[in-house]
Amino acid sequence: MKLKAVLLLSLIFINAHSIAADKFGIVIHGGAGTIKKENLTDEKLEAINAVLTKATEAGYNALENGESSLDAIAIAINILEDSPIFNAGLGAVYTYDGLHALDASIMDGATRNAGAIAGVAHIKNPIDLAREVMDKSVHVMLSGAGAEEFAIQQGFDLVPADYFDTSHRYEAWKKARQRLAEAKTVEQQASVYLQDDFRYGTVGAVALDKNGNLAAGTSTGGMTAKRFDRIGDSPVIGAGTWADNTSCAVSATGHGEYFIRNHVAADICARVKYQNKSVETAAEEVIQDVLKPIGGTGGVIVIDAQGNFTMEFNTPGMYRAVKTTDKKLEVGIFAKN
Ligand code: ASP
């Protein structure tokens, strides 16, 4: 009798496990903005394509080998952070004072644990430090010098501030500083920051692993010429990043102030959870119906625990890529139509 019960239980377990292991996949983004074909050379397009492919394949392979969704997104984001093309890690934009201040966050959909860092200047891969905050500290968000002190305690090597320097971001900084100097009113200054060519290139990833666990992560240099230790949405849990196994995982990119005010990542998953909407519908509603009318530009990548995913944006382009058990690798740059 007892043996029968054990057999039955293990059968149920195997069954449940095989259902959960059915699907897995990863979706990544490299920022949304005024990304237009006429502004990109073939070589640049090829280079972007190559990094997006490499990051997606690396994340997908990790999932295939049974690694967790958290590991997979960190692997993918590290590759994007190490590429000078994107506004995260190497290639981060310059602050008003000509420095770099990086933000990142990560969330575990199984436990709803989260970690975030803001305004660090010497951490090569900010997503790794965000994960360390999640795993090894009693806090969710650390910032500035304190975050770097924590990093040192955890054995991170710091990089010199100029590690993040790139000439294309330096040129954008000079242009932004000039326009800010010319701006006479607060409104005119704000309109400089609204130009999305001064910030796009934030990176992020969401994934579903073989155990049915979701994870999301985002990493950015923020906005060119940001001032007064401005922090955007990327390290704000619920705004730029969200993951919950019972709804979905989201990483956002766009004009951070709008994403914070509208709690974008969590709002999408709340619509999935409480209104039974698909990730596609929920993301479309928030990006097109909530953000766009008030001038909030940007996009999101989303995946749910069934492996359904979407990549929604209201800008001319969003660097993005996906690979799941149901879908072979697909890389996208421009809007669908
Ligand atoms: N969301 C980022 C920020 O506001 C920038 C971006 O994603 O383009 O800092």
UniProtKB/TrEMBL annotation:
The record, for SUPFAM superfamilies, names: N-terminal nucleophile aminohydrolases (Ntn hydrolases) (SSF56235)
Q: Which UniProt keywords apply?
A: Signal
Instruction: Look up the signal peptide feature and give its range.
Output: 1-20
- Alphabetical list of InterPro entries matching this protein: Ntn_hydrolases_N (IPR029055), Peptidase_T2 (IPR000246)
What's the domain of life for this entry? Bacteria
Could you confirm whether the keyword Signal appears in this record?
Answer: yes
TM segment ranges: none
Q: Supply the CDD domains for this chain.
A: Asparaginase_2 (cd04701)
Residue stretches in coiled coil: none
Give the PANTHER family listed for this entry: L-ASPARAGINASE (PTHR10188), N(4)-(BETA-N-ACETYLGLUCOSAMINYL)-L-ASPARAGINASE (PTHR10188:SF6)
Q: What is this protein called?
A: Isoaspartyl peptidase/L-asparaginase
